[in-house]
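Aim 2 progress update. The chain analyzed this quarter is reproduced below.
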Amino acid sequence: MAIKKSFFLIFIFVSITYGQKKDWMLGPFARPDNAQPILQKNPESIFKDPITQQMVHWESMATFNPAAIVKNDSIYVLYRAEEKLGEKEIGGHRSRIGVATSSDGLTFSKWDKPLFYPNEDGQKQNEWPGGVEDPRIVQTEDGLYVLTYTQWNRKVPKLAVATSQDLVHWDKHGPVFKNHKNGMYLDRETKSGAIVTEIKNGKLVAAKIHGNYWMYYGVPHVWLATSTDLINWEPVETHEGKLAPVLSPRPGYFDSWLVEAGPPPLLTKDGIVMLYNAGNSQNIGVKNLGNRIYTGGQALFDANEPWKLLDRTNEPFIKPELPFEKSGQYKDGTTFLEGLVLYKGTWYLYYGTADSMVGVVTAKQR
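Predicted structure tokens:
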């Protein structure tokens, strides 16, 4: 597959430590002093769409909301790429998932074609015409790659799963809750599936707790689901059969509007650390953050009872500050977290900026 090079500036890192006040947190993370986006749109990228049979400019609108995984000696970033369709608003363009690779975590080479996209397959009714969005990715101990993503048919967003042995050829398995209670959740909005991981032999792999895999998902609350095979999932419910939120918005704080799981959470000696995306509602939240701004928080859950919240940050540990984080499709600004890898002793955290570009911050492993 052809690869095209991208141009980047030299990075000089300085610490950002606001909100870094609890020993269990990941970080502190550092952002480049002269930070620039590591991935941007390319109106010249073309691809023959298998549904329309037309050559399309598949990343002409934006490239944002990245997942990340380490393979061999490289970091692979899987990013949401939007094809510009006229002057439509957010959610009205068409998304596919592209991939870029790096040997240092900072400078990337894009593949010239999307990696994952709507096709004439069994998921077309869920993925067309809006596309596939907002990936997260994990790997199992035996090497299977598991991708969670949002299917967008412009009717109902659905959290779905796909698997691959090589990060190139994918099997789509459809909505994660399709087999639960005769599909009772199929017509409900679901998204943002973040599967719990742990460090084994220096790499992140999907973790089992009490024989099950666990996944935090959803918005504006975060809910929880379990699985034995990473494909078929069951939401954690109350005895009444209702969804039980495990993390919720808080009036008076930076996460007063909504909370949404970020990259795959990490099982640590302190518990399960989840980096999450937080939306602010200025009238009941933090006045100086503004309305609808997305920042990043961290939450700690019990390692044996993943639904039990032990602690959470009262301030964001990352927020939009630079021009490319506050300008783009999403004018209010985002540092939208979706990709986290451990690479050569350093954490690389990848995030979407203003629904338009991709940024990165790093932290040394402790």
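The chain has a mean pLDDT of 93. The longest strand covers residues 62-71. These observations will guide the mutagenesis experiments scheduled for the next reporting period.
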